[in-house]
Amino acid sequence: MRDHYFSGSARVSRAIATRDRNVTDDSRPNWAITAPSFFGMLATGALMIALTGCLGLGGDKTSAIYSPQVKIETKSEWPSVTWPLMINKPLASEALDSSSIAVRPTPGELQVYAGAQWADAAPDMLQTALVQGFEDSGKIASVGRQGTGLRGDFVLMLDMRHFESVYADPSRPPSAVIEVQAKLLVNPSAQVLATKTFRVSVPARDKDVPQVVDAFQGAMTDLVGQVVGWTLATGQTAKVQAAAN
Q1: Full-model pTM
Q2: Which fold has domain 64-244?
Q3: Mean predicted lDDT score pLDDT of the chain
Q4: H/E/C letters for each residue in 71-133?
Q5: Where do the domains of the chain lie?
């Protein structure tokens, strides 16, 4: 199976649009369509359909929506806490704040898989997984998204640095790489209590999109578990120290 990417499609679109404008008869009204222009439009549509079908990694011409299911394993060493927590939507670049599934074929190149997308934008998907992770842990009094009316003692802020499949070797399947910087803030002072960077890389079994998505599900599960454990331990230590003072 050949690997294809989206690069160049915008340039092709602009070139085709320019060509069609050049064959329009300027002596006719703006709404008139000449025969050459009409057939040019048909050719343009056919070409763009072909491009849509073949451009992108994975080679699948049908659109598929993927929603990784994250179920963390609660660790006995995690403290049970009575304070509420708010979780911000992770900050991300424009390229990652999207429902497109990002792929990095080379270190300096970021593209997307054709015919496949996430059920939600990557930052929203991670925020939902974190809320569910805290809830499933059974270790916290209450947790929710910021802006829902919950008044938490702490706010968890995340900066999403990587959320893409990465080809370290073009001849081998990629790895799902997720990296975030987490900050735990005291509410309402917004004082930064602690900061930590989390990075997880899970190799895919194959280059096909379903196997890449499976790798993302494993990476999200691992990362969410790490963030939940760190947040509970860090916040509870701060509470104990504050009570002692």
Answers
A1: 0.76
A2: Rossmann fold (3.40.50)
A3: 81
A4: CCCCCCCCCCCCCEEEECCCECCCCCCCCEEEEEEECCEEEEEEEEEECCCHHHHHHHHHHHH
A5: 9-54, 64-244
